[in-house]
Amino acid sequence: MPKSTVIQKAVNTECGRCLWPSQTSKNDQKYNFRADKGSDLPGGKVELIIQANKNAENKGVRENVQQDSHRIVAKVVVDPTNDPSGSSVEDDALNSFEKKN
């Protein structure tokens, strides 16, 4: 995921909209997961929501999402102003994933 692009896109995107990859059935299959815009938070921070795609190429991902298509795999908070490159996104996403699974 191109973190800095996704973070900057999140600033002007409605809550619940897909940030990455662009929403097509081909991308849903290829990337297995997507990043959606979560809530706008105080101080200009934004939530990024990671969810599995129901058309995922990976069988395990696809089977899991069929049980709950709205399940949040990971959730991270980003600060587009003070950390536009998203230096902590990967670690935060992994920590969130481990807590949720």
From TrEMBL:
Top-level lineage group: Eukaryota
Stretches the record annotates as Disordered: 77-101
Protein name, as recorded: Uncharacterized protein
